[in-house]
Amino acid sequence: MASQKRIAKEFADCTNNAPAGMSIALANDSDVHKWHVTLDGPAESVYSGGKFGLVVTLPPEYPFKAPVVTFATRIYHPNVTNDNVGSICLGLLKPENWKPASKLLGVLEAVRLLLVEPQPDDPLESRIADEYRRDRAEFDKNARAYVQRYAKGLVKFDGTNVGPDAGAAGGSGKRSTG
Amino acid sequence: MPPPNTPEEGVPAAVSSPPARARRSARNASISSVAATIGSETQGICVGSVGDLSSRTRPCVLPINYQELRYESEVDKSLECPICRTPFSVPITTKPCGHTFCSVCLLRAHQMRPVCPIDRRPLDIDRDFCKARVIHDQLDRLRVKCPSQGCDYVCPRELLAVHYERYCEGTPVPCPDNSCDLWIARHDATPDKGCLHKYTPCQYCSKQVMKAALEEHYDRECSGNTVKCAECDVDVVQHRMESHVVNDCPSTVVSCKWSSYGCGKKAPRRDIWAHEKKPCVYQAIGRLVKDREEDRLIISELRARLSTVEGRLRMSEKEKTERKERKRRQASSNVDNTENTIPAFVPDLNLSNSPRAAASYNNGTWDSPEDYMLAQFERMETQMEDLRKNIHELDGLHSMRLLNDTMRLNEQIAELGSKVGVIGMHTTWLMNVQRQSRGQQRAVGGVGSPLGAFASSSGGSGATSGATAGGVSDTLRNAPDNEGGRYYSSNMPPRRNSDGRGENPPRL
Ligand SMILES: [Zn+2]
Ligand SMILES: [Zn+2]
Ligand SMILES: [Zn+2]
Ligand SMILES: [Zn+2]
Ligand SMILES: [Zn+2]
Ligand SMILES: [Zn+2]
Ligand SMILES: [Zn+2]
C-alpha cells in the first residue's frame, strides 16, 4: 500500500549511499519488506576482517512501527544476543524512541557505529558487557575468536552459520532485558 | 479495504457535486474531522446525483490514492511528506514545531503515538494542527499521470479529479453486476457485458483467465496457438498478429511520431525508435504544438465548467424570481406583508411539514426539498470559499504593508537614536568642560570672571593645566564608547548632584 513507495525510496537511498563496507539487497525480489545487508567489520574495531549478515525486516505497519534488525551472523558483542536470533539493542529502534520520519540509512549507520563503539551501559548480554568494561583484552580476544569462527567466508542469511553449537567459543552469558 | 483517499484534494467545488455532507466535514481544518472522513464511506464523488441517496453506500468511482500517483517529473524534496515520501496530499502542519505531513500519514502516526513524527514533541489532536495553505498551490500545479490503467493522460494535479471522475474511460467503477463488489474499468462496465470478473477458459491455451484480463493474457502469457512473426521472430498469439504488426513489430515500416510536424523520415520501427531518441529535430516543434493543444483542452474544459456554473446560477435566479412572484401574489391576496421580509437565501427549514414550501419546491426547478437544501448549501460553500480566499489575499496584503511601514519606522527610530546619542555625547563633553572650568575657578579663589580664571590657571602651575588637559581629553576619549545614547537620554544625572565633585565627571 502506501508504505511501498516509501520503502522503495528508502531502499534506493540506502543502496546509493551505502555506509562504508555495507551492501544491501532484497531477500527476494517480490518482497520489499525483507532486506539482506552484508557488513564488513569496521577496520577500527575488533570485528575487522569479518563479514556479517544483517536482516532488516520492515513490519507491515512500517514506517509507523520501527523496523527490526537482527544479525544473521553470530557476533560477540554486548548489545547483540549471543544466540541464533541475533537481536540488536539499538536505542533508535525501541518503540518509545522510533520516529516515523527516521530514515533507514540512519539505522544502518547506527548498527555500524555499534560495532565500533559498543554500548555496555545498555546491554543485551550483561556478561559480555561486564567483560568489555573490566577486561578489554579478554573481550577483544573472544570477539576476534568469534570473527574467525563465524564471520569468515560467504555470508549466509538462512541461519546455518549461527548454529546452536556456538556456545563453546564464548559461552552464553546471563541475559538482561535491554 | 479501500485505500485511504483524499476526497477534498483538487476537487473544484463548482464542478463535481459530492454529497455535501461528506465534503463539508472534509473541509474542516480540524484533523479529527479528517479522521472521520477517512473512516467514512461517503467519500467518492457521484457526479450529478446530489439527491440520490441510494448510491451513497459505495463511491461511484474507486477513490484516487494520492500516495500512489506517478508524477511526470521529479518532485522537489520540499514537497515530500517525510512519512510516506510522496508529494503531500492534504498537507497539514504542526503548530508548535512547524512540520508538515499528509493528513492521513500524520493521523496514523498520531494514533500510534501522540507526538510529532520528526521531533517527538507532544501534540494535541484538536489544537496543534493547521492546514498548510502555502504549499497547496505548488502541489496543485504538479503534473501527474492519470492512475487509471491504460490511460496516458497527464495534467496538473488540481485537474486530475475532474478527468478521473468524469471523463477517463479507464477509471475503475463498481462492477455492473450487483452481486459482485469488485471494480472494473469504466469502458468495460456495461450491463450487456455483465460481470467480467468471472473466470473463463482461454480459447487458445485453455488456461482459466478472468474475462477482464483476457486481452492482457493474450499479450503477455498466452502460450496456445502462437505463431512466429515472419519479420521479427517473436511468438505471437495468432489473432493478435495483426495488432502486433501494426503496433509493435520492430520491422514494420512506420513514420516518425513527429511526422505531422514536418519530419519526413520513414523506416522500420526499430530505426525510428533510435531516430526519435536522438532526438528528432522536429521534436521541439511537436512538443510546443502539443503543449498548446493541451492548453486549449484545459481552456475548453474550464469553459464548459463555467457554462454549467452559469446555467445553474441562472436557474437559481429564475427560481428566486419565481418564488418572489408567487410570494407577492400570495401577499396581495392574504394582505399579510410580513412574509416579504424573509431574505431570499434563507431556506425554509420546516421542509416536510409546510405544505406551502413543499408546493413551491414542487413547482420550481428542484425535485425535492432535500435537493434544494443541498444546492443551497453548495452555493453557500462556494461563496464561503471565495470569501476565504479574499480574506487570505487581504491578509497577505495587510501584513506586507505592515512590514513595509514598520521597516521605515524602525529605520527612523534607529536614526533618531543615533542622533540622540551624539547630542548626549556633546552635552557631557560640554558639561565636563564647564564643570572643570568652574572647579578651577574655585581653586584659584573664586575671583574674577571664569575667563580670567581660565587664563590665569593656564598661566599658573604646570601641574594644574596638565591635569585639566588630561581630564578633558579623558572625557573625549570616553565619550565615543557610549553607544546609542540611551544612557544620556534616560539616566543622565542632574547637574547639581555632581556639582561639588567637579574633578570626577560622571563616567559610564
Ligand atoms: Zn515537529
Ligand atoms: Zn504522507
Ligand atoms: Zn485517465
Ligand atoms: Zn464483477
Ligand atoms: Zn491463452
Ligand atoms: Zn514482428
Ligand atoms: Zn523525425
Description of the structure:
The complex is a heterodimer of chains A (178) and B (508). By secondary structure, chain A is an alpha+beta fold. Chain A has one domain: Ubiquitin Conjugating Enzyme. Chain A has 5 helices and 4 strands, in the order αββββαααα. Chain A has a 4-stranded antiparallel β-sheet, covered by helices on one side. In chain A, β1 and β2 form a beta hairpin. In chain A, α3 crosses α4. The longest helix of chain A has 15 residues. The C terminus of chain A is likely disordered. With 508 residues, chain B is mostly helical. In chain B, the strands form 6 sheets. In chain B, strands 2-1-3 form a 3-stranded antiparallel β-sheet. In chain B, strands 4-5 form a two-stranded antiparallel sheet. In chain B, strands 6-7 form a two-stranded antiparallel sheet. Chain B is built from 14 helices and 13 strands. In chain B, β10 and β11 form a beta hairpin. The interface between A and B is medium-sized, with 14 and 18 residues. The complex binds zinc ion (7 copies). Chain A: It holds the Pfam family UQ_con. Chain A: It is an enzyme of class 2 (transferase). Chain A: Keywords: ATP-binding, Nucleotide-binding, Transferase, Ubl conjugation pathway. Chain A: Its EC number is 2.3.2.23. Chain A: One of its GO terms (molecular function) is ubiquitin conjugating enzyme activity. Chain B: Keywords: Metal-binding, Zinc, Zinc-finger.
CATH superfamily of the domain at 18-170 in chain B: Zinc/RING finger domain, C3HC4 (zinc finger)
Low-confidence stretches of chain A: 162-178
Mean pLDDT metric of chain A: 85
Helix and strand sequence of chain A: HEEEEHHHH
Query: N-to-C terminal Cα separation of chain A, in Å?
Result: 33 Å
Mean pLDDT of chain B: 73
Q: What is the strand content of chain B?
A: 5-15%
Radius of gyration of chain A: 16 Å
Radius of gyration of chain B: 41 Å
The oligomeric state is: heterodimer
Helicity range of the residues of chain B?
A: 40-55%
Strand order of the largest sheet of chain B: 2-1-3
The number of strands of chain A is 4
The percentage of residues in β strands of chain A lies in 15-25%
CATH architecture of chain A: Roll
